[in-house]
Amino acid sequence: MGISTLGDFIYLVAINVLVLKLTGSAAAVAGLWIIGPIASMLTKFWSGSIIDRLNIRRIMIVTDIIRATLVAIIPFFSSIWLIYVCLFFLSVSKAFFEPAALTYITNVVPEKGRKQFNSFRSLITSSAFLIGPAISGALLLITSVNISIWINAFSFVISAILVYLLPNVNTEIDVTVPKINLNILKSDWKEVFKI
Hints:
Distance between the termini: 35 Å
Shape: globular
Number of strands: 0
Largest sheet: none
Radius of gyration: 18 Å
Order of helices and strands: HHHHHHH
Number of helices: 7
Structural class: mainly alpha
């Protein structure tokens, strides 16, 4: 999770520089900061229904691989709109990863160790906020924007491998749980908004 969070901050700086180089427009860079919240608003109200019904560890692995792939292909785009689309799907993947990770933590970390774990997690998240941009800046000084982005993509692959090595918390498949469809999502939304 620390590597994944660090990766988020590394590519964020590199993408800003890439878009500024590509367009020369501060407005285009500002657009990058709008995409994440929009993707979260469009995703998070239904992603929980899927996360609750699928293998949590697999979701974390798949979203890390998706993020690695999407970040890796960004330098090949010359259109700002393709970069925006890519970043939108990166934010959608992150909207699945974060709640899945939270659910995973609840299942795998014993109750007596949660305070210590949460302390370390907060430290890592706060550190990533400072260290990620610093690493990205250093990479931009000694390499190019593209190499910085590809190194970041590799960090998501490492995160996926490390998650794969963790125990599987929901190995039993409940045959009584119906397949995900629109009716299931509607039922979940009704449950959420029930007064």
